[in-house]
Design goal:
This protein is mainly alpha-helical and 193 residues long. The chain is built from seven helices and no strands.
Length: 193
Amino acid sequence: MRLFAAMAACAALVSCQQQMAQQPRYKPLAKSDYFDDAMSARQPVPGTLPQGRIELDPLYLPANSNTFPLPLTPELLARGQQRYNIFCMPCHGQIGDGNGFIPTRGFREPPTFHSDRLRNAPLGHFFDVITNGFGAMPDYASQIPARDRWAIIAYIRALQLSQNVPAARLSPEDRANLDQRPKQEPAQENAPR
């Protein structure tokens, strides 16, 4: 019994050390023997942001912003399509109509990207929803880097345009192709399936 009490006391004493809480530190602008230039004040690593100042990152825009922070390139759209197919298509469907295979399994159906509300939503809204989640959609901040989130948003806008572009905005050749598309025959009731 005494041995057990002695071991418990030793374990308790060892666990009371404050090595992580009481680390060596420098007073502001104090001399340092660790660095070659003897300065303790160091420049932050390039690309780092102060804690709590994420608004300094040009990729993080407010939800009501309609600014796209990256150059729109075919490579960015291709990356957006790839990431969309991985993260978004299972729920939102291949063309963004909300008819993915996850809702067919009994989960809540997501909204279509082709509704007036989402077609007119600012780009920052999509970034905010991907980052923080919305309704039944979980947040993807830890799974999708900010650059990929913007690539997905670019692809969503391309999907929206693909389904809702006014005919007046099409080239004359594209309008002629619309007029010449084959007519679908009505399905027959006894046709083989």
